[in-house]
Amino acid sequence: MIYALANSKGGVGKTTIAVHLAAYLAKKKRSVVFIDADPQQSASAWIKEFSFPIQFETLVTPEEIIRRVAKLAADANDIVIDGPAGLSETTRAIMLRADKVFLPCGPSILDLRAASKAVQLLHDAQKARKGLPKGALVPNKLQKRGRLSREMLDAVHKLKIPVLAGLSLRQAFADAAGQAKTVSEMGILSL
Ligand SMILES: Nc1ncnc2c1ncn2[C@@H]1O[C@H](COP(=O)(O)OP(=O)(O)OP(=O)(O)O)[C@@H](O)[C@H]1O
Ligand SMILES: [Mg+2]
Q1: I need a surface site. Which of 112, 138, 144, 170 has the fewest CB within 10 A?
Q2: Atom of ligand 1 nearest to the CA of 140
Q3: For 72-83, how does the pLDDT look when each residue is reduced to its tens digit (9 = 90+)?
Q4: Which CATH number is 2-184 given?
């Protein structure tokens, strides 16, 4: 399965969710290759320090992604691609190769508006590829009683994309990269 994290907007949790997804799959004993498709390479720096190994590669040009991902997919059980912010050709290439694309979205109407551009790109790819990649919006940094989170969740159906349960705003997610761990390894006191 080729999973990708993408969105037009930066800072919404693409890298955080991609790294946690790859670690989860690796712990299930699946062979996982992580593709860091963001020139900032924050995921690579995080994964490099893990106590258990995950194979990763940095691929930033659309051509590299199209070519290399197809090759890697022949051997790995799963590939997880961390996309860059924006709607560049790299993001388009990711949508042409992925089986499932998760679009994390911050907890506000502004974040939702920004995500709508990525949803459009996803729908374009689905038209060209007979329904693939499957896509879902992942609300992130939700606050239980937050007005902005509620407004976003009330309006999200307009985007015509499945919506997953979402993740809360948690200090542990923000701390995880600095500790070179995933949240599940950080112990109950950090949650
Ligand atoms: N659920 C969460 N709770 C608290 N902090 C979070 C959560 N998700 C992400 N963060 C923090 O928000 C910041 C942005 O997250 P992240 O780097 O994963 O986003 P990104 O979409 O990959 O950003 P970029 O577009 O810059 O690559 C990071 O500091 C991260 O630790
Ligand atoms: Mg990132």
Answers
A1: 144
A2: 1
A3: 999 999 999 999
A4: 3.40.50.300
